[in-house]
## 1
Amino acid sequence: MNKNKIMVLDTATANKIAAGEVVERPASIVKELIENSIDAQCNRIEIEIKNGGTTYIRVSDNGSGMSADDAKLAILRHATSKIRKVEDLYSISSMGFRGEALPSIAAVSRLSLVTRQEDTQLAVCIQTEGGELHKISEQGAEVGTTITVSDLFYNTPARKKFLKSINTESGQISLIIGKLALAYNNVAFNLINNGRFTLSTSGSGNLLDAVAALYGIDTADEMLVVNYEQDGIKINGFVGKPAVLKSSRQWQTLIVNGRIINNRAISRAIDDAYHSLLPKTGYPLAVLDIKILPEKIDINVHPQKSEIKFDNEQIVFRAVYRAITLALSGANRASDFAAPAKNAVNFEGINTDNLPSKSVVSERITQYSPAMSQARQEVADSWRKQEPLIPFNVVRELLEQQEPLKPNEQGELHLNDAVAVE
């Protein structure tokens, strides 16, 4: 009789257990795949989901792509291009580093990976089922990588029954994509949910553009600028005026060195900064981009990398608290970047008496077409000089008319109806 009680698990069982740590729900998969796309230096990511991501997830990017050999290694556990030795863990600048995402996802789904580098004519296509390699082939494809995940948890029904409703899972996916779009506002994000475009950002590289795209221009109008540095910690972003009250912390996006995280010390600093300005049942809207030396944090403390550990949380707490209190005091009010509408000069053909009182900074000017870029830049430059201008909503309506703007002999911009924009 064998009295041994301890045994080594088979590979399939071990992979499914490991997948449970990384793949909590469809949103976990979307997050991991987007992070891989960002590491590939892309500037455009398209995500498509069906039925809350439970039956279909596709993430496509225009990044650098992978060679055929690297693609084959990518589906193996602990195969990564991000680190080479243990010391690299303390200076990580990439989003991923463990080499667990793809094999963990593949272990509980049917996965297809199509990737092509710029110097190759054909893409390599790898298909797996339940973590087992099923097929390798070549096909035509654009430069970049597309990963498709189908039938999530088809081989682990016990996990599948713990998924929430389709609407809830879709909402979680939209939430994490929105936060990543704020963190990487230089990347254009598009989300297709059951055949409908439900989220889109321009990838202009300006955080306020992303805030307006996700939360609306009216909400963006109520944001205050955060710009502060203390003890080697740089904090930029926006916080809502006390009147912009939200029901949960989901509306707070905390970004540390490009990584979306949750941290009690930072959350407490936000709460303390608002103090008596908010009722007990509400939370302020906040988007904070925090930069700190990589060696001052440990990102390898959570399976999904959603939490980090600071070597000195009190310093971080004080910096965040001070940054927000300064913003709330009005020192960094967003409206200070533009002259009030009541000071706007009169323009021929426009009655300025009834214009809205709100004006916004130049960064909120949306990209309407490449041909308008020079005109937009002229308007933006003037806005930065705090010269009196037409409020943003009027400028936007003029730009949307696709009317050509041409400088006159004095360098002033005019619409072809002779209404001056500058």
Note: The first strand starts at residue 44 and ends at 50.
## 2
Amino acid sequence: MTGPLQRRAIADGVWFSRIHDPKFYHNSISVTIITPLAEGKTSAAVLAAYLLRMGSRRCRDMTELECRLADLYGAVLDTDVSRHGENQLLTFSIAGADDRFALEGESISRGYAELLGEILLEPKVEGDAFPEEAFRLEQQYLIDTIEAEINDKRSYAAQRCTAEMGRGCRFALPRYGTVQETLSATPKEAYDRYRELIRTARIEIFFSGCGSPDYAEEVFTKLFDGVERAPLCPTPQRLPLRAERVTELAEQLPMSQSKLVLGFRTGLPQQRRVRTALRVMTALLGGSTGSRLFTNVRERLGCCYYCGARVNCLPAYCLLNAAWRRPTGSGCKAPSWPRSPTWLPGISPRRSFLTSSWRSKARSAPLGIAWPAPRAGISAGFCRGIPSRRSRIWRRSPPSPRKRWRPPRQRLHWILCSFCRP
């Protein structure tokens, strides 16, 4: 049976969390450094995280590090960079077999914790900087990663929309930084940023698995006893409730599909019940294949390949995205997008971003879009294309070909009651 989550402080601004689950056969330890996004320092923090995974004082190169991992029965070491709201998260994790599978009865979990602590607090340095050769390799890798973000057009359009909505706020900064910022970084700047993070950032250590976390907690407690800590408590920045004007941004790219993102300011709900209602409203609007957007815009009208909505309560915004193939011929018509849509009460569109490979002829449309006109019978074709799969999920018999299929309202009523009842 899974045990409850236990969390306690082992140092100033350092927290150790544990959760025991006997159904697994391995353990996982992760260390997450949480710091506010800062312009001019984001790329240096990412470079420092990438350089830490290259080894430590005892493991001088990747060969020695791989041998150390092999001695721990093939443990897996990983590094990840993410963003949560206006914070940058640098995560170092290691996972491997439990202690009961050791051939000689040794403690494998203690070895995991010691290796992860070495990589985090005893990096391989040359003087007061990271090694030059390793830094240049990771610098080029980071540049390639930043330039490759445009390949995923869906996330690229969402990033551009949030950056435009939060211009001047921390959450609008990219998680990897920029190419210019990466090129201007030096090995000493990356090392100085690493030391600043170890001293001022909040650190979360998480142990999960079937083994005992006592060894890991003991190892990290001793490691952070000798570390000088002065954690910062930055004041969170809130997105304004209203924008001065509606911003419309378009970018022409050589692609066969068009991506549309609409950004709405929702305001930061303080009460838990209001936040739950906001999430339920987003789910009903565009959270699944039975939502209003998916049912009407995609299935009934056949205007796009996908459409959905998601909400982020920390910066307080809601994003609506859609994609469609560029129209050919004259079979397209321009919709009149309402400035205050009735299906989203209390929210008006504030930001929009469109990536397209064609120029719309309908210049009078509010967002400069041209929707492809639905072909004959397409409103029912999307539902009749997979009647057997839908029938197994929602109803016992396949839908009639003369009547458009609709999900039962009883299931929707149950979802609303389970989330909104007191």
Note: The chain has 13 helices and 13 strands.
## 3
Amino acid sequence: MKVITQMRKNPYIHTIGTKVILVLLGLANSILINRYLGATLKGHYSYVMNIVIMTAIFMNLGVYQGYSSFKKEKIPNVREKFIQFFKWQMVFNYIVTLGVFFTFSIDYKYFLLLIPLHVTARQMDFLCLIENIHIRNVSKIITTIVHTVALFIIYFFLPEANLLFIFFMLLLQQLVDIGVKLNMLEIHVFNLGIKFDVALFKKAVQVGILPLLSLLLITSNYNIDIFILKELAKFEDVGIYSLAVNLGGQLWLIPDAFKDVLFGKNAKKNDIKSIVEAIKFNFVFSLFMVLFFVVFGRMLIGFLYDDEFIRAYVPLVIIISGNVFMIFYKFIYTLFIADGKRKLSVVIFSVSVLINVGLNFLLIPRMNINGAALASLASYSFCGVAFLVVFMKKYKVEFSSLILKKTDIEFYYNAFKRAVKR
């Protein structure tokens, strides 16, 4: 019991454990929703959810992105002031969303009602990342379990595929996610608290413009192929390709755990050594993950998702190969955000998106979903390598220090033992 308690106190071990649970539940969710909807309806779902995600990022206005910087400056009551910003943003976002909902005719437009909740959930997620990552981990586990249970009920008791059921499931998940975080952070929804700080809000928007643009660009780099596929191919292709993208996301299991902890550290003080160590370990881990999917990917897709989705295998292998290079971006960008290096990130992201868009239009008509995957591979590779080159130059990091050695393995093993004993 003592060993378990000590391991739970270590942020890396606790967060990695959370990620393992989330990936297992996420795999179950992926199987259920793809089998329930089928390739074509899954294509519609992926397309409309990408609209929701991109719009939610924009409507955030990047306000929350400045929280870590303002926290470093030790501004009085900064936490309470930002929570107040989040509350008023939700009110404003629902007014705008309802206006669009009742004004325009859009397929599956009820999904738009998720946008304000996505905005608030992202804001609360970021707040937990800085304040207490344990709350974020607990919330993610609870909401993912809710998601799994709801999908299980839909799949087995509502056999006729209908996106409206999926909408209600997502609505429930978002409400639970926000509710758990509000409760654990002891935030009272209807208590406006201190006076609205207009000056700080304006400053937060100004500070958040570049992070907002960066997030829009990097999300576009991940999602733009879905929008282009929708125009140049069939929704069935979109659905199959989205499965490859989702499975490729499983590669982020360990890297995301390291990234989340590193962001909290860099919000307080730059930690170059930890970033270097994280890159070494996770690059090698990612290569093993690629090998796993190359060997077992086709078999797993056929067994878990049915033969309808077998075509996802080739784009899956291509995408996860590109994800290996994005390891560099994952860790280095946390430092750039905390260190105020925004403009350079925007330039790298912009070039990456242009590469992605150009190659998508060039390759999709010729190679369909495999072409979209190759475009992502080229874009991801450029993005990751560019971040690595800048990181090495600006922070005087030698390339040799990024290569995993036998002594590093021994170091990780001993560090793990020390972490458990603390």
Note: The chain is about 80% helix and 0% strand.
## 4
Amino acid sequence: MSHWNNLPQLRLGVYPTPFYRLENISRIYNKSIWIKRDDLCGVALGGNKVRKLEYLLADAQKQGCDTVFTTGGAQSNHAMLTAACAARLGLRCVLILKKRGVTDRKGNLVLDDIFGAQVEFMDTDSYEDIYAEMRERCEVLANQGHKGYIIPVGGSTALGSIGYAECVRELAEQAKEAGIEISHVASATGSGGTTAGLVLGTSLFLPQAKATGLGVDTDPFEEIVSELVKEAAGLVGQPVPTDMDSRFRMIYHVGAGYAIPNAEDTPYIEELARQEGILLDPVYTGKAWAKFLMLVKEGYFDGQEHIAFVHTGGAAALFAGVNILLCNYYQACENEKPSFLLETLRGAVSGAAAASLRSAVSLMLLALLCGLIEGTSEGTGETGAAFTPYVGVLGAAAIAAGDVHSLIGLGLETLDEHADT
């Protein structure tokens, strides 16, 4: 590649990451399904951001920066991996995260602390507010003799995207060694950089393959990805793909919103764990994987012999208090249970992000919850409706305590027993 080797790059990950056929899943879906395990990239708990950070942090060092700023949601995998890579390079890392989702010291926020990052929350829905704050911080640092480097959400810049064009080159070599020809590559799309790299990479190294981004947010990724592809192609001195319309497609699977689990995805996440021993988070890669298999069943990949899914990491979200089993139970009950039960489950799902309580308190609340339901089951349901707000709070508190098995074992048995009243 004419300009490729001229770009500064660090080697932070352990490559190549594994690429292999999912034998059990392929048998179940009657399709040759391969997986690229970028969750096993050798940094922290892994994930796709490391390939981007190899270019972005190299640029930061080239510019003489000693402090790195980035952002994301409270449980951002990108933020966590930035903290890990910055620590390895001796750079100070400041994470200014949206105060949205699970903000307790769980999941990736625990890892952020372990890696020594300075974590702050901003109560805003706009990343532009956060970038403005970062620019002000950089000015303060400059006055103190330091220099800051701002990495946008997801590391999704043209420079970062090159990491995933590089990934496709690696994948193409592995496919050749395996004696197969990959017809399609798909991955989660949350900020656009990874997908842009896959699109550029397939045009260069797998010209017969198409790329599909599986959107887990509502941003206009058709435009975002196309623009990043153009800019990244310029950085490596390659022509912009002229067949973007036929090579690349976005398909969205957001559900109730970004970082909110979809109950319909749970069976697919559990299936991969139980058939192949692979973990997925319920809000990012898990959503994309579920949609990927839905597309297989719908015939989207018909006529394409071998297809590949890029596992982009994020499993730490499983330890942030998001309970996908309860989400699944809630959906199954939606059209059958009385209103106070629905509110209980809705409150429980929402309460998954609440602060942890002592187990004993949880069981006391659970007992009261079951007592309320028991007491209303013999009446007309009017009493149950009156207790609805309180039952929702109790359900939330029980889940917040982390006593999921206790709730399932003690509570749901009682709920089912009286569901028809």
Note: The beta strands are 19-21, 32-37, 67-70, 92-98, 118-122, 148-151, 182-189, 210-215, 248-252, 306-311.
